[in-house]
Hints:
The chain has four helices and four strands, in the order ββαβαααβ. The protein is of the alpha+beta class and about 100 residues long. Strands 2-1-4-3 form a four-stranded antiparallel sheet. Helix 2 (about 40-60) runs antiparallel to helix 4 (about 80-95). The protein starts with a strand and ends with a strand. InterPro entries: DUF1840 (IPR014991). It holds the Pfam family DUF1840.
Amino acid sequence: MIVTFRTKAHADIMIFGDIAITLLKLMGHSGTVPSALLADEVPAALERLRTAVAAHKAMVPKAAEDVEDNDDADESSVDLAQRAFPLIELLAAAATAKCDVMWDQ
């Protein structure tokens, strides 16, 4: 499953379903797909996501220091901050423009 996030203030982004649901839950949402955030809910969700990413980053040691470069690195080696970045950008644009954010499969 791929989840597509949409808002009038930013280009659509697509995120793999399991990661999208994790990010939605970090935003304080139930993780339901499809669903939406109203414009007035977006700033709080953005702040919760940024806080969760920062907390995760502080708890996890940098992979570059712990693991040698490996061409066969598995999916779990991608940092949460990297996975969340496109959604953070979308939410920030929506918050600035005071737009709703919707997502579906």
